[in-house]
């Protein structure tokens, strides 16, 4: 019997209504090379406001990861929120799967919408894309916020046991779950306190709605992120950068935050959120927003300090 109600589809509709009600509109842009990018953009651009691009991670489309933040952010910024390739309504027939190609597509689309200068916030995989945007387009990206984004990881980190998973294949099976038990594994990996009760019927519905399209292409995105990755090849960006991390992140361990601090030096500042894992946007949205606000609303010169639980300490 065909299913007559989808909780996930209903929630997706609610997020869509929330974005529209906040003053955003849904636009798909054909870049003319087999690539179509979907963005949420302002219904009315306010010239006196700075622009802010919010970039989601692997797992769900942009609405699911940024809904908690658009209300407080839209009062201060013109928000531009893309669905990355193979999420939402964005896709490409081209073979490129690197974060640098994702960054190029985001920036090309933003330029079509009139964005010539912007702050960027990226979470997890979206932070990889945001970092690449800052490296490739320094004249456009003003300030950068990276949330639990392990851009400093290396291919050898997997072999040396830095991660909970033992192989890229195991990581893909969890990050792109195809069974209820794999969704539970993802929740346990992403949250300090995952939901204790997760009925299989709801998880199967989530998989059907959110995780059944572009499976092979999404696997290729993860493979491209890991293959031949070396810290020595990572550009050192010059924009002021704020790094936000969950203290108990099991996807990208906190060591990667400190590694990134060392890589960027005086241009970076780190905030570690206690009792939080990888999904800080869902687990600790108020704390995450507090740090974004402190960095973007009233920017001050960076102190190259490590912030933890509201207290400032010297970086390691």
Model description:
Strands 1, 2, 3, 4, 5, 6, 7, 8, 9, 10 and 11 form an eleven-stranded mixed beta sheet that branches. Helix 1 runs parallel beside helix 2 (62-74) and helix 3 (99-112) packs across helix 4. The chain has helices spanning 7-21, 62-74, 99-112, 125-136, 155-159, 168-175, 180-190, 200-210, 215-226, 255-264, 280-283, 285-296; strands at 24-30, 35-42, 51-55, 78-83, 91-92, 118-123, 141-147, 241-246, 268-273, 305-308, 311-314. By secondary structure, it is of the alpha/beta class. It is 40% helix and 19% strand. Mean pLDDT is 93; it is low at 309-316. A hairpin with a 2-residue loop joins strand 10 and strand 11. The protein is built from twelve helices and eleven strands. The longest helix is centred in the N-terminal third of the chain and has 15 residues, at 7-21.
């Amino acid at each position: 019997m065909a299913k007559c109600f989808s909780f996930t589809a209903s929630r997706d509709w609610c997020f869509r209504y929330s974005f529209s009600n906040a003053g955003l509109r849904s636009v798909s842009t054909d870049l003319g090379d087999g690539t179509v990018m979907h963005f949420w953009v302002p219904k009315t651009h306010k010239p006196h406001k700075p622009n802010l691009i919010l970039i989601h991670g692997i797992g769900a489309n942009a609405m699911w990861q940024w809904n908690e933040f658009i209300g407080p952010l839209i009062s201060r910024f013109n928000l531009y929120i893309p669905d990355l390739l193979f999420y939402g309504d964005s896709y490409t027939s081209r073979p490129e799967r690197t974060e640098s190609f994702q960054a190029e597509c985001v920036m090309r689309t933003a330029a079509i919408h009139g964005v010539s200068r912007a702050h960027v916030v990226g979470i997890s995989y979206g932070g990889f894309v945001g970092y690449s945007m800052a490296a490739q387009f320094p004249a456009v990206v003003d300030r950068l916020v990276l949330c639990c984004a392990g851009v400093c990881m290396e291919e050898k980190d997997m072999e040396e046991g830095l991660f909970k998973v033992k192989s890229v294949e195991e990581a893909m099976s969890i990050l792109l779950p195809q069974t209820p038990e794999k969704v539970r594994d993802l929740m346990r990996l992403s949250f300090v306190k995952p939901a204790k009760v997760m009925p299989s019927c709801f998880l199967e519905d989530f998989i059907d709605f959110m995780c059944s399209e572009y499976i092979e292409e999404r696997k290729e995105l993860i493979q491209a992120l890991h293959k031949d990755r070396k810290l020595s090849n990572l550009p050192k960006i010059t924009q002021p950068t704020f790094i936000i991390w969950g203290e108990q992140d099991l996807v990208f361990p906190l060591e990667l935050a400190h590694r990134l601090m060392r890589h960027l030096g005086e241009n970076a500042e780190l905030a570690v959120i206690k009792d939080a894992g990888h999904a800080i946007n869902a687990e600790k949205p108020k704390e995450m927003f507090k740090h974004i606000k402190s960095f973007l609303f009233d920017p001050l010169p960076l102190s190259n300090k490590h912030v933890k639980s509201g207290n400032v300490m010297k970086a390691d």
